[in-house]
């Protein structure tokens, strides 16, 4: 038992150390970033890729034994409602938690229009007091899907403590733009490439669970690379994404545009490597 405890502690230490390499942002700056991106995220919800992702998540939850009808669900970092809305439509009572007012406003509008059982809550998971909120052991399912809110052992343990049965977690394994953005960080911004803004990835939480005796159901999803698009459109998307955590000068914007123009073929730019996402579902009683 002592050896197992040491292994768990080692993985937790590794995970927490990796989390220190994430962008250092305050709650206020993060809220501003997600407010700014709410329009784009809401548009993306209607796409074919987004629908496939929702189907994959709901399928994994069903395989784990979860049924949404009448269930209490906590969706941490809910965004514009990618999972909140389909779960509520399937009969769940969802507490939708996010740091972004704009994201939650979209959920409020959809819930009112469709008469869904959704309780939006503006809150940072980094500092949430689950006992004061009355969240401990309250929910049948707790979700942390592609969110920077669950970034280390402490925020992960806080998430699992809110569940009385099921948990779901997902994160990027590899993104289609990773190599491109690393080049921009190094050669244009003069910075060391940052860790995934959504946290250190799937490996640490998976191994943390595994060394503690849990055996989560795991599924990987591959979304094909971005279709070819006009290089100017691709450059503006990169400027919008990378500019969420910094202010670019006109000179820097022009350097990024020049990068995409040079890399383009026949005026178009695309990525064929695709994005890989890891998902896992488990029960808190399972050992």
What does this structure look like?
The protein has a single domain (about 1-175, about 195-225, about 275-285), classed as 3-Layer(aba) Sandwich (Rossmann fold). Helix content is about 45%, strand content about 20%. It has eleven helices and nine strands. The chain has helices spanning about 1-20, 25-45, 50-65, 85-90, 100-115, 130-135, 155-160, 180-190, 205-210, 230-240, 250-265; strands spanning about 70-75, 95-100, 120, 140-145, 165-175, 215-225, 230, 270, 275-285. It starts with a helix and ends with a strand. The mean pLDDT is about 85.
Key structural traits:
287 residues, alpha/beta, two-stranded antiparallel sheet, 19% strand, Rossmann fold
Topology:
Blueprint (H helix, E strand, L loop, with lengths): L1 H18 L7 H18 L3 H17 L7 E5 L7 H6 L3 E6 L2 H14 L3 E5 L7 H4 L5 E7 L7 H9 L1 E12 L3 H12 L13 H9 L5 E7 L5 E2 H12 L7 H14 L4 E2 L5 E9 L4
Parallel strand pairs: 1-2, 1-4, 2-3, 4-5
Antiparallel strand pairs: 5-9, 6-9, 7-8
Helix pairs in contact: 1-9, 2-5, 10-11
Task: Indicate the low-confidence ranges by residue numbers.
Answer: none
Give the overall pLDDT as a whole number. Answer: 84
What would CATH call the homologous superfamily? Vaccinia Virus protein VP39
What is the terminal separation in angstroms?
Answer: 14 Å
Q: What Rg, in angstroms, do the CA atoms define?
A: 20 Å
Number of helices: 11
CATH architecture label name: 3-Layer(aba) Sandwich
Count of separate structural domains = 1
Give the SSE string.
Answer: HHHEHEHEHEHEHHEEHHEE
Shape category: globular
* Largest sheet: spatial strand order: 3-2-1-4-5-9-6
CATH class categorisation: Alpha Beta
Q: What is the helix fraction of residues, given as a range?
A: 40-55%
